């Protein structure tokens, strides 16, 4: 009974602390806010079932992000085109429309970023995870994570520098 | 450490700068400027990814029964059987009960559009063009600037939800390729006026907060 109460309290703390960032992560993975909420609900349901596997409370956030990502892959794997493994161009080009306002241009660029680049970037920006943690979550080595993050940021940086709207917002 | 190493590591993780990186940054004005600029881009990036979270999300997750997977699975298995048996009926629901269809559509637009506008997602116009062409329609010239475009649940299935900025303000188009209608459904409520029309094998709905705006929108689809 006491264990059950403790589990419930711990679970509630995790929901209140991380559901917002998990929702945002889910949204950027599937880009559908209704599907994103379903993914978060399902991820927490799976976390509740697998509660015993959470040994280190400080790793709870990365654990939840991993569960959500696995759930996303499970639900959306059949719907998305296969990713060409090993194709990692040195320079990633993101098209931009000069007529679109700055903040929106960055959002659209994020949507256009290939999934292999977007995922680690989201894990870092939303989750605050290190390259090593992201590597564990995505099942790739730390060096590959660093490469993908560097290329993703270079592409976004080029977009910012080439977009007058963003450059204006950036000016001090 | 070279400037190239510094920039590579900064771009890989600008949130964790070790002592070597900080030392290089303080000794190299060009890299220091590069880091300041990257810091500003990170701020924009943080702002862009932090889309609004639906109200009450945590409470909904914590609702009693939401996390009882075993029970949920049992119910889901039962529900799946029912869905298989009545799947075709669900898509016909708008035709069978047009008043309920109209109420749900009005409620959906009234409740969800504020959040959709806050997300400011302008989606992929090709998806909308495909959905419209499936109904034998095309995107009218002069529809206005698209403020939001995304898939949404609608009575009996899913639709493409579009919010457009017209000269009179925002208006809504919902394209429902899988929801047939027998005839036009006129609706009003929740501060909105709308009309849903059959098209091809599905239907589409136009909604606005005034009859004038709705009439203007309708002329584009005639």
Contiguous helical run count of chain A: 8
Radius of gyration of chain B: 24 Å
Helix content, binned percent of chain B: 40-55%
Oligomeric status of the shown chains? Answer: heterodimer
Poorly predicted spans of chain B: 68-77
The helix tally of chain B amounts to 8
User: What is the terminal-to-terminal distance of chain A?
Assistant: 57 Å
Strand content of chain A: under 5%
Determine the strand fraction of chain B and express it as a percent band: 15-25%
Number of strands of chain A: 0
Write up this protein.
The complex is a heterodimer of chains A (172) and B (222). By secondary structure, chain A is mainly alpha-helical. Chain A starts with a helix and ends with a helix. Chain A has 8 helices and no strands. The N and C termini of chain B lie far apart (67 Å). Chain B has helices at residues 3-12, 19-27, 29-49, 57-61, 69-96, 98-119, 125-134, 211-220; strands spanning 145-154, 157-166, 169-176, 185-189, 192-199, 202-208. Chain B is built from 8 helices and 6 strands; from the N terminus they run αααααααββββββα. By secondary structure, chain B is of the alpha+beta class. In chain B, strand 4 and strand 5 form a beta hairpin. At the A-B interface, helix 1, helix 2, helix 4, helix 5 and helix 7 of A face helix 1, helix 3, helix 4, helix 6 and strand 1 of B.
């Amino acid at each position: 009974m006491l264990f059950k109460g403790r589990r419930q309290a711990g679970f509630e703390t995790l929901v209140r602390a991380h559901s917002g960032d998990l929702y945002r992560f889910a949204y950027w993975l599937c880009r559908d806010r209704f599907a994103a909420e379903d993914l978060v609900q399902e991820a927490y349901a799976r976390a509740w079932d697998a509660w015993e596997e959470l040994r280190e409370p400080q790793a709870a956030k990365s654990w939840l992000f991993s569960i959500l990502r696995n759930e996303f892959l499970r639900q959306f794997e059949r719907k998305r085109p296969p990713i060409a493994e090993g194709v990692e161009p040195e320079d990633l080009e993101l098209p931009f429309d000069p007529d679109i306002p700055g903040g929106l241009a960055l959002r659209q660029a994020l949507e256009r970023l290939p999934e292999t680049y977007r995922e680690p970037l989201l894990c870092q920006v939303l989750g605050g995870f290190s390259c090593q943690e992201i590597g564990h979550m995505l099942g790739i080595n730390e060096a590959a994570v660093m490469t993908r993050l560097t290329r993703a940021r270079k592409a976004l940086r080029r977009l910012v520098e080439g977009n007058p709207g963003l450059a204006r917002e950036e000016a001090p | 450490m070279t400037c190239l190493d510094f920039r590579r590591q900064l771009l890989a993780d600008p949130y964790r700068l070790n002592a070597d990186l900080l030392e290089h940054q303080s000794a190299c004005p060009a890299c220091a400027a590069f880091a300041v600029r990257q810091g500003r881009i990170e701020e924009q990036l943080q702002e862009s990814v932090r889309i609004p979270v639906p109200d009450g999300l945590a409470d909904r997750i914590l609702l009693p029964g939401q996390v009882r997977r075993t029970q949920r699975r049992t119910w889901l298995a039962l529900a799946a059987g029912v869905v298989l048996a009545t799947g075709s009926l669900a898509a016909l629901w708008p035709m069978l009960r047009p008043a309920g269809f109209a109420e749900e559509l009005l409620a959906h637009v009234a409740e969800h559009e504020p959040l959709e506008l806050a997300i400011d997602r302008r989606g992929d116009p090709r998806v909308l063009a495909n959905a419209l062409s499936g109904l034998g329609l095309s995107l009218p010239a002069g529809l206005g600037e698209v403020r939001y475009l995304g898939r949404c649940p609608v009575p009996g299935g899913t639709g493409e939800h579009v919010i457009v900025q017209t000269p009179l303000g925002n208006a809504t188009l919902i394209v429902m390729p899988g929801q047939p209608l027998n005839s036009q459904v006129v609706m009003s409520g929740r501060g909105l006026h709308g009309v849903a029309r059959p098209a091809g094998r599905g239907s589409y709905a136009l909604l606005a907060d005034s009859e004038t705006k709705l009439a203007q929108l309708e002329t584009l689809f005639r």
